[in-house]
Amino acid sequence: MSMKQIYRRIWAWFLAGALLFFAILALGGRIEGRSSLDMHSTSAWLLVIPVGCIVYAAYTSMRYWRCEYCGSALPTKLAKKCTKCGREIDYK
Question: Where are the domains of the chain?
Fold first, then answer.
């Protein structure tokens, strides 16, 4: 998998989790006629899904966002070179 695909996958899972989280908060309480922040409602377990998406994005970032040559962790910004070995990172 290329670095560009990893980058897109991380942000896709993170954004999906964030959007689901806010959608459930906004609509969850309205479905049952309760406050949307009532954590004792039966729809509170639905928050597991967006939290799982965000945790998976963090796992993917920690596991795969590494230099292809030396294996060191890359900075969160798209760096042109590895901070440890100095080789150029191919984001194609």
Answer: 1-92
